[in-house]
From TrEMBL:
Chief location: membrane
Transmembrane segments: 57-75, 108-132, 139-160, 172-191
Record InterPro entries: Ccc1_fam (IPR008217)
Name listed for the protein in its UniProt record: Vacuolar iron transporter
Keywords: Ion transport, Iron, Iron transport, Membrane, Transmembrane, Transmembrane helix, Transport, Vacuole
Protein purpose: Vacuolar Fe(2+) uptake transporter.
Reaction(s) catalysed (UniProt annotation): Fe(2+)(in) = Fe(2+)(out)
Lipid bilayer topology: Multi-pass membrane protein
A GO biological-process term: intracellular iron ion homeostasis
UniProt similarity note: Belongs to the CCC1 family.
GO MF annotation: an example: iron ion transmembrane transporter activity
Listed GO CC annotations: vacuolar membrane
Length: 195
């Protein structure tokens, strides 16, 4: 009776336990892509905004950064996942195992997901600056929008991976602020030198 009870408890435990490490690959790619799009586009816009107060210059630099970054992420992910695909196929052939396509990684799917995640992050600072004509208000709007998005991305990554939310959000937020501050400061310094 005890053995049957223990077996039932093991089955219940297995059905309620989820291996969150299995999520790590797609979760890492999605969060990294969105966070990278957010931080790199916002930092680029802040850097341009440090020397050019014109809204058009900020928006064009942000848009160019979004397109270039999304293309770069897509190509990088495609090449990376295709390499993994080739390795797994070669291993299956060495072991004389039937190649099951649905179990292999999809380079095209990973590439599209990466580009979309990057673009989703990059759109935040662009939308924040889009309708604001006054320079100082525009800079503040970008920083506030990016701050809120960084907290959400940090929280989302932690929540989906069942990791500590506060620590993850703080790490993502401080990293984003640092990137924007360094880009703004260095560009301002170089801009002053060439005035």
């Amino acid at each position: 009776m005890d053995q049957a009870h223990n077996t039932n408890m093991d089955i219940e435990k297995d059905s309620t336990t989820f291996d969150y490490s299995k999520r790590s690959q797609w979760l890492r790619a999605a969060v990294l892509g969105a966070n990278d799009g957010l931080v790199s586009t916002a930092s680029l816009m802040m850097g341009v905004g440090a020397v050019k107060h014109d809204v058009k210059a900020m928006l064009l630099s942000g848009f160019a950064g979004m397109v270039a970054g999304a293309c770069s992420m897509a190509i990088g992910e495609f090449v990376s996942v295709y390499s993994q695909y080739d390795i797994e196929v070669a291993q299956m052939e060495r072991e004389n195992v039937e190649i099951e396509k649905e179990k292999l990684p999809s380079p095209l799917q990973a590439s599209c997901a990466s580009a979309l995640a990057f673009s989703a992050g990059a759109i935040v600072p662009l939308l924040a600056a889009w309708f604001v004509k006054e320079y100082k208000v525009r800079i503040i709007a970008v920083v506030v929008a990016v701050t809120m998005a960084l907290v959400v991305f940090g929280w989302l990554g932690a929540a989906l991976g069942k990791a500590p939310v506060l620590r993850s959000s703080a790490r993502v937020l401080l990293g984003g602020w640092l990137a924007m501050a360094v880009t703004f400061g260095l560009t301002k310094l170089i801009g002053l030198h060439y005035e």
